[in-house]
Amino acid sequence: MLKINGKTKLVGIMGYPLEHTLSPIFHNAAFNYLDLNWCYIPIPVEEKFFDKAKEGIRVIKNFVGVNITMPYKEKVLPCLDEISSYAQVIGAVNTIHIVDNGRLVGYNTDGRGFLTALSQDGGFNPKNKNVLIIGAGGASRAVAVSLALSGIKKLKILNRTLDKAEAIRSKIISNFACEVEIFNFQSNLENCFSSIDLIVNATPVGMVKEEYPFPVELISREHFVCDLIYEPLETPLIRAAKEKGAKTLNGLNMLLYQGAAAFKIWTHIDPPIEVMRKALEDALELKKN
Ligand code: NAP
Q1: Pocket test for ligand 1, best of 203, 253, 254 (most atoms within 8 A of CB)
Q2: Which domains are seen in the chain, by residue range?
Q3: Known catalytic residue: 73?
Q4: Which one, out of 12, 34, 227, 283, has a CA that is 20 to 30 A from the CA of 178?
Q5: Other C-beta atoms within 10 Å of 188: how many?
Q6: Spatial separation of the C-alpha atoms in residues 260 and 246, rounded to whole Å
Q7: Can you give the pTM of this predicted structure?
């Protein structure tokens, strides 16, 4: 059981809204398991109060760090004292470590979480592979940078708004030796899906009943299909891919490993991955019922 007292170290998640966050559940399960006097709390902050809130965490003595989520992952950058080179390339921060009496150091563990999930749980090595990412928001950018860093051969980005895909393309080609092509849903999609090893859905399509803006029939058993969505664990895209005989990975693993990487940054202790995974799975099961 967590015991809160004057020595409890605090971490948390800042964003808005936060009613559905699962991060407190799996971080607190890890603290509990390791018998650490730490506590992870949700910190819902409306946009008009964000500047005050981020200054607040600097001065609260027992705060060790926070995760940053929507809509602040990019907005937080100018407020930080130091940003890891990886987070700088991605252009977004999801983890802050508070060091030396109030210095805010920013990291991005989303991309790292994705790569760990892909290799450890998916058994997929992205080196020299051709990848299609659907979506061009924050998660797509983190995934694109992490894949480029891992040495993929070619990246295709398919997005509703071409400008956003173009912004990721120029980021990748100016930082990495990786060929990038961009498409929207009016493009020749057969061409877009051809010669692809890994498909990543980085849009929220599939969370609720909604038609995919691309023909799911283009998926074949040669593809490895990854959906960043974790609620539901099996999206219609994952189901369709499984029916085709393709290998699949859902977003739970990325959520788990991005959290585990933040845990390590704050505590310097190896996170109990299986304890965290079980807490996440139990929480999702409970939500389903
Ligand atoms: P975001 O920055 O808001 O980007 C969303 C992207 O999806 C944009 O490219 C947007 O296209 C596209 N999109 C939204 N609705 C669409 C629709 N109806 N049809 C076609 N495209 C649509 O969001 P994000 O932070 O990148 O998150 C994307 C997804 O990844 C979410 O489902 C989120 O839950 C998931 N995620 C999972 C993890 C994890 O740990 N598993 C971590 C981060 C995010 P436009 O550019 O045209 O607007």
Answers
A1: 203
A2: 9-108+253-288 (3.40.50.10860), 111-250 (3.40.50.720)
A3: yes
A4: 227
A5: 9
A6: 28
A7: 0.94
CA dihedral 261, 262, 267, 273 (to 10 degrees): -50
pLDDT along the chain (289 residues), means of 10: 87 95 97 97 96 89 95 93 95 95 95 96 97 95 96 97 97 95 95 96 90 93 96 94 97 96 98 97 84
- Sign of torsion, CA 161 167 168 172? positive
Backbone angles phi, psi at 172, to 5 degrees: -70, -45
- Residue nearest to ligand 1 atom 31, measured at CA: 204
Determine the Cα–Cα distance for residues 140 and 148; give it in Å rounded to an integer: 12
Q: How far is CA 65 from CA 70, 97, 230, in A?
A: 17, 4, 24
Tokens 């990246």 -> residue: 155
Would you state the pLDDT for residue 2? 63
Helices 252-267, 273-288: axis angle to 10 degrees equals: 130
> Which is the catalytic residue, given 7, 54, 73, 287?
73
Q: Is the CB of 159 under 6 A from ligand 1?
A: yes
